[in-house]
Design a protein that fits this description.
32% of the residues lie in helices and 27% in strands. By secondary structure, the protein is of the alpha/beta class. It has two domains: 3-97, NIF3 (NGG1p interacting factor 3)-like (Udp-n-acetylmuramoylalanyl-d-glutamate--2,6- Diaminopimelate Ligase, Chain: A, domain 1, 3-Layer(aba) Sandwich), CATH 3.40.1390.30; 102-224, Udp-n-acetylmuramoylalanyl-d-glutamate--2,6- Diaminopimelate Ligase, Chain: A, domain 1 (3-Layer(aba) Sandwich). The chain is elongated, with a radius of gyration of 18 Å. The two termini are 36 Å apart.
């Protein structure tokens, strides 16, 4: 499959056009131009470690959630040059999908985490510029706070403990999910009637907002909550008859 067709298929499947005006990430092809795609690697982060791993796998494309272009590049020098030269010198294209891969109703990080937690989606959640990047979900069997913490703790957290702000009900049935950095959606989670907000990382104000609102907030790690989208995308690409691989590089954050 030609790279142009490969990227066009992904752009359409992920509905990148809907997020074009609101996402700081330059979603889509970020490095590369043409060529045949026979092997594709997938990773959460587009960084030196995953670039080098993609080269070792002889990948034609590396698909990531966090790319390298966020609102434009002023200069390609220093570390930026070193990163990009690894890709260019080894003819590896870089493709990124940020917010579209958070909120996608079938392939997104939020629905993937919901499935892991044995929850069913109720409705989209997490308004961001008119689009949604998360899900409100309902557990098949209600969780206690410690049980939900343990379940999240089994993710690829790099040994990091799941932090809990246990200010909500003891029994958790409806969970608002925004993967990555989702502490800004505490008030929306309360307004929608969630028993807990599950996200990756928090902010200082999250403690008081959760305490005053009476909401459980569980912080399972930015990386750990965002492996689901790229894994789901890998399954899609595999169905196209392309060889695939997943590069796991947990950060513990």
């Amino acid at each position: 499959m030609e790279l142009r067709e490969f990227t066009a298929r992904l752009d359409e499947r992920l509905d990148h056009a809907a997020y074009a005006g609101i996402d700081a990430s330059a979603n889509g092809l970020q490095v590369g131009g043409s060529g045949e795609v026979t092997t594709v690697a997938f990773a959460v982060d587009g960084v030196a470690a995953t670039f080098e791993a993609a080269v070792d796998l002889d990948a034609d494309v590396l698909c990531v959630h966090h790319g390298i272009v966020w609102g434009g590049l002023d200069r390609i020098t220093g570390r930026e040059y070193e990163r990009i030269s690894t890709l260019v010198d080894n003819d590896v294209a870089l493709y990124a999908s940020h917010l579209p891969l958070d909120g996608h109703p079938e392939l997104g990080n939020a629905v993937g985490l919901a499935d892991y937690l044995d929850c069913v989606p109720v409705e989209p959640f997490g308004d961001y510029g008119g689009e949604t990047i998360g899900q409100l979900v309902r557990a098949d069997e209600p969780y206690s706070v410690p049980d939900l913490q343990d379940r999240l703790g089994a993710l690829d957290t790099g040994g990091r403990a799941v932090q809990v702000l246990d200010f909500g009900p003891e029994t958790i049935e409806e969970i608002a999910i925004v993967t990555g950095s989702g502490a800004d959606w505490i008030r929306e989670a309360v307004d929608i009637g969630a028993d807990a907000l599950v996200t990756g990382e928090g902010k200082g104000k999250a403690y008081h907002e959760a305490r005053e609102a009476g909401l459980n907030v569980l912080l399972a790690g930015h990386y750990a909550t965002e492996t689901f989208g790229v894994r789901a995308l890998r399954d899609v690409v595999s169905e196209w008859g392309i060889e695939t691989a997943f590069i796991d590089h947990p950060t513990g954050l």
